[in-house]
Structures are given as structure tokens and as C-alpha cells.
Amino acid sequence: MTEAVTSKRSIDVRVIPHFERHQRVFGMLESLGSGESMEVTADHDPVPLQYQLEMNYPGVFKCAYLENGPNVWRLEIERRDGRCCGVCGGL
Fold first, then answer.
1. Are the C-beta atoms of residues 82 and 35 closer than 8 Å to each other?
2. Is the peptide bond before 46 cis (omega within 30 degrees of 0)?
3. pTM for this model (two decimals)
4. Which domains does the chain have, with CATH numbers?
5. Are the C-beta atoms of 28 and 11 separated by less than 8 Å?
6. Where does residue 40 rank: exposed (0-12), middle (13-18), buried (19+ CB within 10 A)?
7. Would you tell me how many other CB atoms lie within 10 Å of the CB of residue 24?
8. Which of 34, 42, 63, 72 has its Cβ near the most Cβ atoms within 10 Å?
9. Is pLDDT of 49 > 90?
10. Which phi-psi region, left, alpha or beta, contains residue 52 (left: φ > 0; alpha: ψ -120 to 50)?
11. Rounded Cα gap, residues 73 and 17, in angstroms
């Protein structure tokens, strides 16, 4: 019997300067394939990141809280299967 080993992509933005955070997250999102996900750990509720995702890539990504404060927030961001809105040119 073989076991599938998966390594989930993750980024802890608490250790990244504020002005670089979203840029770094979006850089990682570009490498996600359909159905793949990554985890973002933050020291605040990442609502602005979710708004930016939906504005730039409507319907492409799905977000789910894994941990919801008060000191740490963990958000899973998944690229939806087989959906393309055409905005990103195939991001």
C-alpha cells in the first residue's frame, strides 16, 4: 500500500513587513493549480486580503477560516476547480 504525501503551501505573514504581505501571498497563489490550496497565518483578520482576492479574481478562489483569532488567524485559500473568469489571463 502506498500513501500519498502532500505538502501544503503556507505563509506566515506575521514575520513579513506589512507592505510586502499581499504581494507575497499573491505570488504564492499564482503557483496553485486547480483544486490546490495554501494556508495564510496572520496576526489580524485577513478580510482586506479576501476583498482584494475577490476584486482581482472574482470566483477563482475560495477562502475558509481554520482559526479565527483573537491573536492568530489562519485562512485556507483554494483555487476552485476548472473555473476561469478570464480576468487574470489564466493565472
1. no
2. no
3. 0.81
4. 9-79 (3.30.110.40)
5. yes
6. buried
7. 14
8. 42
9. yes
10. alpha
11. 17
Residues 71-84: b if buried by 16+ CB within 10 A, e if exposed:
eebbbebbbeeeee
Mean pLDDT over each residue of the chain, to the nearest integer: 88
Cell of 71: 491573536
Q: Which residue has the cell 497563489?
A: 29
Which three three-digit cell numbers place residue 23?
504581494
Alpha-carbon distance of 17 to 29, in angstroms, equals 19
Q: What is the mean pLDDT of residues 47-61?
A: 96
- Dihedral angle, C-alpha 31, 81, 59, 40, nearest 10 °: -50
Name the one residue in this structure whose C-alpha cell is 485577513: 46
